[in-house]
Amino acid sequence: MTDPILEMVNVDKSFGPIEVLRDISLRVHGGEVLCLLGDNGAGKSTLIKTLAGVHKPTSGTLKFEGEPVSFDTPREAQDLGIATVHQFGGTFPLMTIGRSFFVGDEPTKKIGPFKVFDRKTANDIAVKAVRDFGITRIDDGDRLIGGLSGGERQSLAIARAVHFGARVLILDEPTAALGVKQASHVLRIILEARARGLAVIFITHQVTHAMAVGDHFAVLIRGALAANFRRGQKTREEITDLMAGGEALASLDSGIEGYMATHKGHAPPVAAI
User: Fold this and answer.
1) Does residue 273 lie within any of the structural domains?
2) 89 — pLDDT class (breaks 50, 70, 90)
3) Hey, is 11 helix, strand or coil?
4) Are residues 84 and 117 in the same domain?
5) Do 174 and 65 reside in the same domain of the chain?
6) Domain encompassing residue 118
7) Structural domains counted in the chain
8) Contact assessment for residue 167 and residue 199, using Cβ atoms and an 8 Å cutoff
9) Is residue 156 a part of any domain in this protein?
10) How distant, in Å, are the alpha carbons of 15, 97, 111, 169 from that of 87?
11) Which of 56, 59, 84, 132 is deepest in the core (most CB within 10 A)?
12) Average pLDDT, the chain
């Protein structure tokens, strides 16, 4: 396998005395989907914000293409090719598709001495980019974002990131609020991004969606890496059990059984548990 595009090495992140991430080491390669799984409060949001330049690691190293990197702003991460698409696509409901696609980097044309937004160019590029990902229902760049389905908004945001040169695509719960059909559209887009050679980090708590597209899986529990494995190494039931803290519960049960055996069946006091 080729060298990873993006890597975390022994990364910790604390906010004052509160330790949110503990000794995280992960890597993602081009043409691969890394599924980051965990329940609410597991540390997923802090991890992706650290990768995206929102937070700096308290300790440890981020590497991009094997070289250590440090981001002072999310823009620096974006300029390197790390794009984050949030749950609702980061789009603007009252903007048109073409305008939203190019917000902050609008194509212009000259009319006399003035430069104005080139609406036709923006619309043509935005519609083509989305349709190239297989979302053929979008055929008019003047449609308002607010009239798109959740899956179409996600598709537009992903197509935009790819158009502007993303090499690593971080998707934060992109299927969480979607129905079955819309979620399947987004999963198809993820597979297309992988086929184009992007490194995809798919954050989710939905194991079924992760197993549909994932090559590599990592489970976070309370800021620590509880499991790190490849496709086919664990069943859906095992992954679900891990996310619920199953191994920790199993260890606790084993300790209780040992205590009871030693003390002839008497239940341990609360403090022992």
Assistant:
1) yes
2) low
3) strand
4) no
5) yes
6) 95-147
7) 3
8) yes
9) no
10) 24, 18, 38, 13
11) 84
12) 85
pLDDT tens-digit series, residues 150-209:
888 888 888 999 899 899 999 998 888 788 888 888 898 899 999 999 999 999 988 999
> Domain holding 43: CATH number?
3.40.50.300
pTM attached to this predicted model: 0.83
Q: What one-letter code names the amino acid at 160?
A: R
pLDDT value of position 169: 95
Q: What is the pLDDT of residues 29-71, one digit of tens each?
A: 999 999 999 888 888 999 999 999 999 999 999 999 999 999 9
Q: Are residues 216 and 228 in the same domain?
A: yes
Torsion angle of C-alpha atoms 53, 59, 64, 65, degrees rounded to 10: -170
Task: State how beta strands 168-172 and 59-64 pair.
Answer: unpaired
20, 138: one domain:
no
Question: Which residues in 153-171 are b (16+ Cβ under 10 Å) and which e?
Answer: bbbbbbbbbbbeebbbbbb
